[in-house]
Design a protein that fits this description.
By secondary structure, the protein is mostly helical. It has 11 helices and no strands.
Length: 279
């Protein structure tokens, strides 16, 4: 663990991403404390310019809603959707990939054909259809993003299992009579975790972008403020108040960039091929 932390700390981009993501997480955690009123509440005159009122330093939108409150509450929605959908996609993808890679044969063929079917459909288009069918809500958005995100994980886990199941320690576990489920969970899966962790970190960024796209198209949860909704609502005010779109857009950009930088740092720290001699 100490070696991992030391290698991760040498990646300056990852440290910068960790700082940015930490600030976003703090904003999401304490948004209800900093902004007690609902982000949907009309609290001041419309189109209040930034830095003209100390109470609303980022200004207001065309309906008089506080842009600062919208950004803070939008951070909570983006991180929640990104984390929950990625967790669901990783769990399902690991299950499918582990079964396909461990057993092979007809099970492998069947599971991989299903995986290829989901990969043949554009992710955003499929997510839009699923959310529209089940009506826009936090649960349908998480489910839709998870449904289109698991195939890459399944293929990655399958390839890792195909490689690891031939190793000596796995063969020894078979010889002593360990059950397949125990071999998968205690012998193969722990050794396949590094690439899964890196992939999951990058999937969070993709999930945030997908959620923002859905909200921009009007398919977000109508009870929750999100960055994508803020951009979509402000698209008719680009000339009069460009900051209404610029602020949530920069929030999405910085958050996704931070997560990608952390993913690169994790890859450098966990990938044995990138380690220096003696580490």
């Amino acid at each position: 663990m100490k070696k991992f932390m030391r290698r991760f700390a040498t990646h300056r981009g990852a440290l910068a991403g960790l700082v940015i993501l930490g600030l976003v997480v703090l904003m999401a955690l304490f948004c209800s404390v900093w902004y007690e009123e609902s982000p949907w509440a009309m609290v001041a005159e419309p189109l209040l310019a930034p830095l003209t009122d100390r109470t609303y330093p980022l200004g207001t939108d065309m309906l008089g809603r506080d842009l600062g409150a919208g950004l803070a509450h939008g951070a909570r929605v983006s991180l929640l959707v990104g984390g929950a959908s990625t967790l669901a996609a990783v769990v399902f993808g690991v299950l499918v990939g582990a079964l396909a890679g461990f057993y092979g044969g007809r099970i492998d063929d069947l599971l991989m054909r299903c995986t290829e079917f989901f990969q043949s459909i554009p992710q955003l288009a499929m997510a839009v259809v699923l959310v529209a069918i089940f009506t826009p809500s936090l649960y349908s958005i998480v489910g839709a993003i998870a449904s289109v995100s698991w195939p890459p994980v399944a293929r990655l886990v399958r390839s890792e299992f195909l490689s690891l199941r031939q190793r000596e320690f796995v063969q020894a576990a078979r010889v002593i009579g360990q059950e397949p489920a125990r071999i998968i969970c205690t012998q193969i899966l722990p050794n396949a975790m590094p690439p899964i962790i890196v992939t999951a970190s990058l999937m969070i960024a993709s999930a945030i972008l997908t959620e923002s796209s859905l909200s921009f198209l009007g398919l977000g949860d109508r009870n929750l403020m999100s960055w994508g909704f803020m951009i979509g609502a402000a698209r008719t005010m680009l000339r009069e108040a460009p900051l209404m779109s610029l602020l949530p857009g920069m929030a999405i950009l910085l958050t996704v960039l931070a997560i990608n930088l952390i993913g690169e740092g994790l890859n450098d720290a966990l990938n044995p091929q990138l380690r220096k001699p003696g580490e």
